[in-house]
Amino acid sequence: MITLGIETSCDETSVAVVENGRKILSNIIDTQIPIHEKYGGVVPEIASRNHIEAISRVAKKALEEAKITYDQIDAITPTYGPGLVGALLVGLSYAKALSYAINKPLVGVNHIQGHIAANYITYQELTPPFICMMMSGGNTQIIHVKDYTTFELLGKTRDDAIGEAFDKVARVIGLGYPGGPKVDNLAKQGTPTINLPKTHFENLDFSFSGIKTAVINLHHKNPEINKPDLCASFQKTVTETLIENIQKAIKQTQIKTIVLAGGVSANSYIRKAFKELEKQNIKIYMPDLKLCTDNAAMIASAGYYNYKSGKTNELNLNAIPNLKI
Fold first, then answer.
1. pTM (predicted TM-score)
2. Which end of the chain has less Cβ packing within 10 Å, N or C?
3. Could you tell me the sign of the dihedral formed by the alpha carbons of 77, 82, 83, 85, in that order?
4. Confidence check: pLDDT of 44 > 90
């Protein structure tokens, strides 16, 4: 079965062709990072405009690379949320028009479900149930993945998402956008010697506004502070928070299979820290680096499982910027 994934939730225009939810035939990503870099973050109106310019070209390239025709596609699977509403509408509108034109079913995909599905491509043997540590620029969640299309939210951020905190810290200390990779790289030159606050809740929720504000205040009070040490300390503290909540989730569910997902799962320190959990007889899965950030292959994979479960959508499907898992 062939699914055509379409992803335009933020600043990547991506179209992919995936076979049986696990095998990538093509995964074309047109990134807008150089465009938004000078603004210090994604400008929604500019992102939407660039998606409009790129989507047809990217889709054509994806089909050419996969060496298939429209007739061979079984389902068209666009992201319809969460994300920037203008950006989402570009990919979704293209998908709906294509669905109508070639008479193929439309299967909407939750972007968060897509990030989880990136692991199905990386690990052919991976099957639910498992616990997912979802961490990106817009979301930080602990999700009980009961099967391919059934999810239970166990914990979430009450304010900033972890990726948002990385970006804001990077901006304040002058590293620029995108902040995550730049903080990760600079932290490798530092030592985590600076004490930073951690927020704890009785449940599995997160809060990153306190540590973000602490880093900003430290930098304002002492602009000459050692930036590598500050990055290393920030990274270490937020990682400890993630690990502590995951261990609570394991105790709560008795599930010892942990899957990482989202752009922040590309962070080298976080990946190494989670790998250490394998010493406690906990199985850790994390997607290939190229599948951590937004891409259409993960959306096509999630769309495959949605379609197999009987889910299809009408052409009145709308973008939902705050869509929940």
1. 0.94
2. N
3. positive
4. no
